[in-house]
Amino acid sequence: MHEQDKTISASAPPSGHKLNKIFKIIVILLITAVMVLLLTTLAMFAYNNLSLTDNQRFAQDIDFAIENGRMWVRYHQQDILNRSNVALIRMLQDINTIHPDHPYSGIVNSFMARPSRPDCWKRLIDPNHPITSRDLNKTIERESIDNKWILYAIAPESANVTPQQLRLFDAEHWQGRQLTHQLWALIHLRRVQGPDDELDTLIEHLCDRIACYLHFDIAVVDIYIQKVAFVLKAGFGRKIRRRWVERIIANQQSDGGWNDKWFIFTSDSKPVLNLSQQESNQHATIQALLYQVKYRYAKQFGISGRKIF
């Protein structure tokens, strides 16, 4: 019996050897997981930033996308007017300035001609549109912070709030859609107040922040389009990579518009498990059309620093 015990004991590997083997397997699995994660990250970064499309094909693609987007706006003029999103109508005014077309000017003119309450929002379209301080400030009181910014920006001399109270000049505080809306408001404030070195520096800094995020964004959703559009509106075409434009063009829907969905992803970070094609909407479409027109006609618009084709 004693000899049997010795034989069994000799044939069994030490428990330390087993632990060492398990530890090695765990280390190998961890290294493999890190390598897979790293390679996936690099692949996604390359996919989002490196363009492989030749200049001629890119020029054709962007012209085709602009024409399809224009037709979408033509077919949805009444819906755009019914919703009367003044920011989108302002974007159509910008598009019409660079690439004139009757649907754009028709929507803008119809909006300005119809009565609306509060009327102060029309100052975003026409810098000379008459407003009352009472109407402006009552509207500021009841609006969200994003809208407070733009209302202040279009009539700073009549506003009872200061940009400091609104944290409008805070260079680092705002994130996500509020960051792009902050940029949007500051662009209009610069239009009202004229050139200002400090304001110009802040606007460029916000564009740098947004462009940095765009390098690592993968989902081509509404906020992705908005980031590109507003950096272009600020005049910093050199900060926009052509690949971002290509990806937005590739996400154009069959009806000529865009929507807030890329596979299962949306702007609010909530995955949508329905993989069927989502209907285009005016918010994403008009933003996409704005950035395309400004990118395509960069020299005419005066966008700085990037050779487009």
Summarize it.
The chain has two domains: 17-50; 51-301. Helix content is 65%, strand content 0%. It has helices at 2-11, 15-49, 55-75, 77-83, 86-98, 102-113, 133-142, 145-154, 163-166, 176-193, 197-216, 222-233, 242-250, 282-296, 298-301.
Report what the structure shows:
The protein has 309 residues and is mostly helical. It folds into two domains: 17-50; 51-301. The chain is 65% helix and 0% strand. The chain contains 15 helices and no strands. It has helices spanning 2-11, 15-49, 55-75, 77-83, 86-98, 102-113, 133-142, 145-154, 163-166, 176-193, 197-216, 222-233, 242-250, 282-296, 298-301. The N and C termini lie far apart (88 Å).
Number of domains: 2
Kindly provide the radius of gyration, computed on alpha-carbon positions and rounded to a whole number of angstroms.
27 Å
> What structural category characterises the helix and strand content?
mainly alpha
The total strand number stands at 0
How is the main sheet built? none
Spatial separation of the terminal alpha carbons:
88 Å
Spans of 5+ residues with little confidence (pLDDT < 50)? 305-309
Residues in helix, %? 55-70%
Q: What is the percentage of strand-forming residues?
A: under 5%
The count of helical stretches stands at 15
What would the average pLDDT be, to the nearest integer?
89
Pattern of helices and strands: HHHHHHHHHHHHHHH
Overall 3D geometry? globular
